[in-house]
Design goal:
The chain is built from 24 helices and 22 strands. By secondary structure, it is α/β, with parallel strands linked by helices.
Length: 674
Amino acid sequence: MHYLKGEPKPNRERIYKLAKRLRHRGPDSYKIDKFEHSSNEQTFMVHKRLAIVAPGESGEQPLYTDSEKQTCFIANGEIYNHQALREKFNIEHPNKSDCQVIGHVYEKFGALEFSKHLDGMFATVIEDRKTGRLVASRDHMGKIPMYMAKGKDGSFWFASEMKCLHDDPGVESYQLFPPGHVWVKEKNEKEGTMTRWYDERWITDVEYIPEKRADLSELREIVVKAVKDRLMSDVPYAVLLSGGLDSSLITSIAVRNRASAKNTYGSTEKVHSFSIGIKGAPDLKAARKVADSLNTIHHEIYFTPEEALDALPDVVWHLETFEQVRASVPMYLLSRAIKSMGFKMVLSGEGADELFGGYLYFHKAPSPEEFHKECARKTSRLHQWDVARANKMTMAWGVEARTPLLSKAVVDYAMNMSPLDKMIDVKKLDQDGKKYLEKYILRKAFDTPEDPYLPAEVLWRQKEQFSDGVGYDWVDGLKAHAEEKVSDEEFSKRAERFPLSPPTTKEYYLLRSIFEEHFVTGFENGQDAYKTVPFGKSIACSTPEAVAWDPEWEKSVGDISGRAVGVHDSSDGFDLGKDSAVASSSSSSSSSSSSGSGSSSNVTTSSARATSSTVTTTTVAALNNKKIAAASRKARQSRRLPGGGGSRRGSTKAVGFISQVRLTNSSSVFCAFA
């Protein structure tokens, strides 16, 4: 498929078969644009759509700025300021997609500057047919996934998911497309140029320590606006609610502003909220309390450790990494439930723990300077962690996750804030008697007793990592499962089995094995898959650099659970095992900072106690009806494309797919976004 040879018709057939790998991400429509250049070059722009804004023909892609189709482009994501851009630059076009403005802003500001004017999440590819220029760009935080490959024939490819690249015989190598960058290739160039367009000082200067103190009113207003802007939707949407600070704030803001938000679906209706967990899990109890106080229509999804273990292979396939699995499995299960109820978009709370130092290990930050540097490290790497999980786990079922706390405005404000406003000291009280807990400054900004956003016990609740919050039985069950699957003999030879950063726990031995089966073993470019995955020991979701904060952490095997840090209420008795000499560098995983939630199924729902909010409950097992089971089996069927390379299984929705390919007697550019 990537190494196309022959005439346009068989090329299109090949492209269509590849685009089927993106089907989960774009189930609503499918379009191809084919353009033949004067040099006998071919361009295929392919788009698989999840229609949220302007559903129907008025929002279809590929997109064009003019009737001659001289500027053709495709995009995945959302541009929240599209209406303001239309008005400011007098953009008039019959296509009502929010992404329509991308091409016009490119024409006005050029390849290196246009991305700076977009407020949203996006991965986009533009073909300027007037100049022969090819442009690719990704949003500032990498909220929309994107990969880049080079063909053996000198071609270039861009895809939203690695599974579109990992097994094709025409691909020489592939890698992550970096967030906040734009890639430009002029007509006669053999290589394109990668340039950082998101160039805020906090991300370009590792020694930068901001000094500006936070203004509580400013911070509150910026966060509120970010949430309100992301209510833009023409289809039903909901909020993920774990009962923790971040998800609860977003839910509260959505409830307050839905009626006044512009271009929002169901503005007069109650907000739906979703939570997921093993029965009795901390998140379920906390989420219900918040839902009651905010009067949402609340839905609970229950799952068992056994059901979570059943999903492991599929989760790693969709996630394309062996990291984040603990938090990804519940999110994968709840996303299926959410889609079954007819919701296409959810608001989620990723980002606050990185921006404000909310993880429990931040309690041991040795200085304000190191606190800020760790926030910068965590935030700049989100595209490989929580952000990737949030997108890929929801998109596996055709649901879009939006993350207001990672808007450019919120990120820039938080990362240019003095770390003195973020430091944790639970032994110290402020003038109102509040502890300096994790994310104190965010809590304080929304501590408005005269018009409370949240009950005090929720606003000042201790951080609970998502994989822990959905139920400790899940985390412990995964460890026990790995203990059964991986023998002591196999584990003793882990350095031979995994010479690159050998896993230091059986859990990661198991997850690495699944990852390799999907993307490494037997594939010519298998080692490129490892280049897309972060490595390094982690304590309670820390970066490898922060492990040095505590000598005991350095001696351990590492564990992402919040219980690995002694400050957690549930830390008593938690065993942080000792590291071994044979595997001094471990593979660790970061869990979600946002709330996870599920929807109730139309198969089995029941009213759960009379409260001020409407609450429905269901189980994952109840969703396994014949229709869903059949769809899952079909998605898992192996597919093989003619000419070599077969895809491993059915597709998840990929952000996009583009390749520029030279044929034997012609050349071709292929793009597919969803």
